[in-house]
Design a protein that fits this description.
The chain has 76 residues and is an alpha+beta fold. The protein has one domain. Helices cover 24% and strands 34% of the residues. It contains two helices and five strands; from the N terminus they run αβββββα. A three-stranded antiparallel sheet has the order 3-4-5. A hairpin with a 4-residue loop joins strand 4 and strand 5. The longest helix is centred in the N-terminal third of the chain and has 14 residues. The radius of gyration is 12 Å and the shape is globular. The N and C termini lie far apart (36 Å). The structure holds zinc ion (ZN). The site of zinc ion has 8 residues, from loops. Zinc ion binds next to loops. This is Quinolinate synthase.
Length: 76
């Protein structure tokens, strides 16, 4: 079975193959760097995501210039 990290790397490879922009951010759970797809210009994409490093679920807000991730319980 593939790890979440392997799945994330394959997802990123597909994103990049399509020519989409990616950004990196530091996770709020384990402090590691994660690369993910940037939103389209003028859009904000917010979603729950799972950390590919430690599998913590966090809230991720992506724009075309940055991605910010927060853990809902600790963000309040
Ligand atoms: Zn993590």
């Amino acid at each position: 079975m593939k790890t979440l990290k392997q799945q994330h790397e394959e997802y990123l490879a597909r994103v990049k193959a399509k020519g989409a922009k990616t950004l990196t951010f530091v996770t709020p759970c384990c402090g590691k760097t994660v690369e993910d797809m940037a939103a389209h210009a003028g859009e904000t994409w917010d979603t729950l995501a799972t950390c590919p490093h430690c599998e913590t679920i966090y809230w991720k807000v992506a724009t075309d210039s940055e991605i910010v991730a927060t853990i809902p319980d600790k963000a309040a």
